[in-house]
Amino acid sequence: MIAVLSGGTGTPKLLQGMMRLMPSEEISVIVNTGDDTKVSGLHVSPDLDTVVYTLAGIVNERTWWGIKGDTFETYKAMKRLGWKELLKIGDKDRATNIIRTMMLDEGKSLSEATAEICRAMGVRSKVMPMSDDPVQTVIHTDSSPIGLQEYLVRGAGSIRVQAVSFKGSGKAKPAPGVLKALNESEAIIIGPSNPITSIGPILAIKKIKRTLSKRKSKVIAVSPLIGNSPVSGPAGALMRALGYEVSPRGVAEVYREVIGTLLIHPSDGTFRERIEELGIRVVLEELLLPDLRSRIKLASTILRLAGFKVGGRL
Ligand code: GDP
């Protein structure tokens, strides 16, 4: 069994590789919910849905958001009625959000709702929100605090960030099954996700961080940065704002209490010593994941590092 910590763009690519190398039932995914938000009265869980759609084979890989081939008739009809939705939600994607919201309104937990959606979509991996309690990622700027979506919509590069906090994380409990998956997995993988706004909220839950630190030697992380830039998104800007070096060494600093191994890009060998001095093993590996082949290859390297025999299913 493996446990994977995930956001909604980089790690899902790795999951596509993992699910081709081992039985889906043996993969548990613990997902960031710090970006969950209300849109048109619906409880939207962007990262949970991307992970579930990825495992169901229906994710829109152009955006890593929503379902491929989805239509936007409801969005357009709402616009004609004068209602401009904050996020452009597709029709099929909206169905997921409606059903989740109804289940939550009936008193089910986010974990229960996620499990039911997975079952309906034929997803056999265990996909878990990091917590059933609300946690909200807050970006503190020079003016007012904003959510991650607004930060991205307003143009991450142009906004000065003073701090990032995770409202509710102090009281939030890990969702049922999360600590068990972390304790019982042969390997724990922190995928290539934004260390601040995707993995940060998960680590902000004390019991999760404590469990990871305890099992540190089994935790393998993949750098979302190559050289001094993220492959995509605002990870660099956010790391810089929080005082981290924007490099694989900075990623190692963010994760230093919870990982035993960090995979970095072969062109980043110069960072090796400065990462190893933090007590972290460094493995050089191709980390760009443009296609399924590269995703399977990285997944197989990670599984081998974790002691799995990989071969037959490649
Ligand atoms: P979000 O929830 O949409 O922000 O998604 P994630 O946090 O899961 O993913 C965003 C991070 O994934 C960014 O920091 C990217 O640099 C990283 N990323 C995206 N694609 C790749 C890739 O092909 N390789 C690696 N190593 N990182 C990637």
Any overview of this molecule?
The protein is α/β, with parallel strands linked by helices and 314 residues long. The protein has a domain at 2-36 and 124-134 and 170-313: CofD-like domains (Rossmann fold, 3-Layer(aba) Sandwich). It is built from 13 helices and 14 strands. It has helices spanning 10-18, 46-56, 73-80, 91-105, 110-120, 148-153, 178-184, 199-203, 206-214, 235-241, 248-255, 272-276, 292-305; strands at residues 2-6, 27-31, 37-39, 42-44, 126-129, 136-141, 146-147, 161-167, 187-190, 219-222, 225-226, 229-230, 261-264, 281-284. Strands 5-2-1-9-10-13-14 form a 7-stranded parallel β-sheet, with helices on both faces. It has a 3-stranded antiparallel β-sheet with strand order 7-6-8. The longest helix has 15 residues, at 91-105. The mean pLDDT is 96. Bound molecules: guanosine-5'-diphosphate (GDP). Guanosine-5'-diphosphate binds at residues 7-11, 13, 47, 192-194, 198, 222-224, 230-233, 235, 287-289. Residues 7-11, 13, 47, 192-194, 198, 222-224, 230-233, 235, 287-289 line the site of guanosine-5'-diphosphate.
Count of beta strands: 14
Q: Report the major sheet.
A: 7 strands, parallel
- H-E order: EHEEEHHHHEEEHEHEHHEEEHHEHEH
CATH architecture label of one domain: 3-Layer(aba) Sandwich
Distance between the termini: 18 Å
CATH C-level label of one domain: Alpha Beta
Mean pLDDT, nearest integer?
Answer: 96
Provide the helix percentage: 25-40%
CATH topology of one domain: Rossmann fold
Shape: globular
A few lines on this structure:
With 314 residues, this protein is α/β, with parallel strands linked by helices. It has helices spanning 10-18, 46-56, 73-80, 91-105, 110-120, 148-153, 178-184, 199-203, 206-214, 235-241, 248-255, 272-276, 292-305; strands at 2-6, 27-31, 37-39, 42-44, 126-129, 136-141, 146-147, 161-167, 187-190, 219-222, 225-226, 229-230, 261-264, 281-284. It has 13 helices and 14 strands.
